[in-house]
Hints:
It comes from Desulfomonile tiedjei. This protein has helices spanning 7-44, 53-104, 119-158, 163-184, and strands spanning 110-114, 194-198.
Amino acid sequence: MKKRSTLERQMLTYFGLIAAASLLITVEFIWAVRTAMFEAGSLTHTSAQDVTGNSIMMALGSLQNKAVLMGIVQAIVTLIVLIMFIRRITGPLKKMVEQSRAISEGDLSRTIQIRRRDELGLLGETINALTSNIQEIVAFGLSTDSSLQKPLEELRSRTADDPVCRQHLDEIEGRLSGFKSILEDFKLLPAPLAETEVDGKP
């Protein structure tokens, strides 16, 4: 059996990408600082006349620009990774919520086609199993109601002259009719199945 990849592992992967991007940007920034320090050290060995305020300001300005650029790059990378992660989670969840709402309203023709092997895939399988169990109960109830019709008709014919028995039979038939109308409100699986896909790579 193939081992499931959990949402926890996926979260670690996405945030690991963010950490790796942050590390690379930090290394680049440290390299820029060391380069600026090296240039400043070189200036101190020159004559005082050659060391100008403009040179120092240019070095500091370049360092500041690099810091701003690195911050922007890090923010963009973080935003992209978070959007990818959020869409991967919320997209399938939205589909399953829609299907669950339809099922709760009695539409048992909805199933979720699983294409994931994580907790969301397990949730989809659970919803499908729940829908299947409810449908079996409904089908059993309808079958039971149909099988009781003939015995009730026979009882009615045998007790046609007994008003008490007829009254009880009327009550039983009324309850069965109400029960049947409730079961018939459920929409069972047609052929072919109405499926909603939950996409996602394993």
